[in-house]
Amino acid sequence: MIPVNEPLIGEQEIANVLDCLRTGWISSAGKYLEQFEQAWASYCGMRYGIAVSNGTTALQVAVACLGLQPGDEVILPTFTIISCAQAITYNGGIPVLVDCEPRTWCMDVTQVESRITPRTRAIMPVHIYGHPVDMDPILHLAKKYNLSIIEDAAEAHGAEYLSGRGTNSETWRRCGGMSDISVFSFYANKLVTTGEGGMVLTNDPGLAERARSLRNLCFRHERRFYHTELGYNFRLTNLQAAIGVAQVERMPETIHKKRWMGESYTQRLKHLHQIQLPIEEPWARQVYWMYGLVLDEATGMDAPEFAKRLQAEGVETRPFFLGIHEQPVYTERGLFMGEQYPVTGRIARQGLYLPSGVALTEAQLDVVCQVVEKVLA
Ligand SMILES: Cc1ncc(COP(=O)(O)O)c(C=O)c1O
Question: Across all residues in the chain, what is the average pLDDT?
Answer without folding.
Answer: 97
